[in-house]
Write a structure and sequence with these properties.
6-stranded mixed β-sheet; about 350 residues; Cytidine Deaminase, domain 2; 19 strands; 10 helices; 2 domains; about 25% strand; alpha/beta; 5-stranded mixed β-sheet
Length: about 350
């Protein structure tokens, strides 16, 4: 395949719910030859082997090809996972930016832990299939990239044949709940109700948690429990980890219970974690992904696009009392989601009909 060249625009968050694509800044313009090289390696990658979905993802990082690999029963090693493994095998433990918070926390308990060396201007390239020309890493891959390569990782994506390509930082795909999302515990009836449910969620989620492998090095903000509230009921979730370290997060646990009840109409979700109230729970992007897809089922059924509230509460574990409360929404929580919509209109029609039939049983 002859080398291709692309015309680049940046990704700068969303405006009125739609992606904003301004021109590249000076720093990004200097990297255009490196972006071209990275996309050419990705376009020629032969790693991808999606035997179930047929959704071929071609990627590269630091000159190394990567791609998604299917196995088992509809399991997949995603292209971003292969990319991180590839660059670790070549460069050792690396990051594109400052030491991730999770590693700083672990190093406090284990000074012998290997810390990454910083590689400025590290580039992950992805050949895009999406209708809007963007490639959207799934929630689990965002968790991996956030913890291992950092928010400053350059992510570039474009079609294999050239044309327009888009440049972002990993941080553009992430959403942090900030001070502007804090709500008063003394305001109105709504927050008071959420505060009461937060105590119940902490207790029920703790009861449901099954984890004999707990470590002192864990970030407390990630020891969260979950509640999904629908028009019909409440579903609690706790964390489960077995010896293979492929856990089920609390949000997924709650959502699975709602789905098994064929209850697809989300009203709101609530996550709680122990803490003094300075910061909200740090919800894994995999859970944000599963919450987004669960909410999408109800939206497709009703034909109305909604954006349901998501509450986050920090809890005093002894008193089961709320120390801080924040509010965001499903769509704000995951700005650029990988969803069933990425598979095209024909699949979305099948997806909608599948859950319409499933509700009858």
């Amino acid at each position: 395949m002859p080398e291709q060249h692309w015309e680049y625009v940046a990704v700068a968050g969303k405006r009125n719910g739609k992606p904003n694509f301004p021109p590249l800044n000076r720093e990004q313009q200097k990297l255009i030859p490196a972006f071209d090289d990275a996309l050419n390696v990705a376009a020629q990658s032969e790693v991808s082997h999606p035997i179930y979905s047929g959704y071929r993802v071609k990627e590269s990082i630091s000159g190394l090809p990567a791609g998604n690999i299917s196995y088992g029963k509809k399991r997949a090693l995603h292209g971003e996972e292969v990319a991180v493994a590839n660059i670790y095998s070549k460069e050792g433990i690396v990051s594109a930016s400052e030491l991730p918070l999770i590693l700083r926390n672990i190093a406090t308990y284990n000074p012998a832990i290997a810390l990454p060396k910083i590689i400025p201007n590290l580039i992950l390239a992805i050949i895009a299939h999406d209708p809007d020309g963007m490639a959207k890493p799934c929630g689990n891959c965002l968790d991996l990239l956030r913890d291992k390569l950092g928010r400053s990782l350059n992510v570039v994506f474009g079609a294999s044949g050239g044309g327009e390509a888009k440049v972002a930082k990993l941080g553009d795909f992430l959403f942090e709940v900030g001070r502007e999302h804090r709500i008063s515990l003394r305001a109105r009836e709504g927050p008071n109700l959420i505060a009461t449910l937060a105590g119940q969620t902490f207790s029920e989620g703790t009861r449901l948690t099954d984890d004999a492998y707990v470590s002192k090095a864990e970030a407390l903000s990630r020891n969260y429990n979950a509640l999904v509230v629908t028009n019909k009921g409440k579903y609690y979730g706790g964390y489960e980890c077995l010896c293979d370290y492929h856990p089920i997060y609390a949000g997924r646990d709650a959502i699975r219970q709602a789905r098994r009840a064929h209850d697809y109409f989300l009203r709101y979700a609530l996550f709680t974690a122990p803490g003094p109230g300075n910061n909200p729970p740090d919800i894994m992007y995999m859970d944000r992904q599963h919450l987004m897809e669960y909410a999408l089922i109800g939206d497709l059924e009703t034909g109305r696009e909604g954006d349901k509230p998501v509450y986050l509460a920090s809890i005093d574990p002894q008193r089961k009392a709320v120390t801080g409360l924040w509010q965001t929404s499903v769509r704000e929580f995951l700005p650029f989601p990988f969803s069933p919509i990425n598979f095209g209109e024909e699949f979305v029609s099948h997806f909608k009909e599948y859950y319409r039939r499933r509700k009858r049983f």
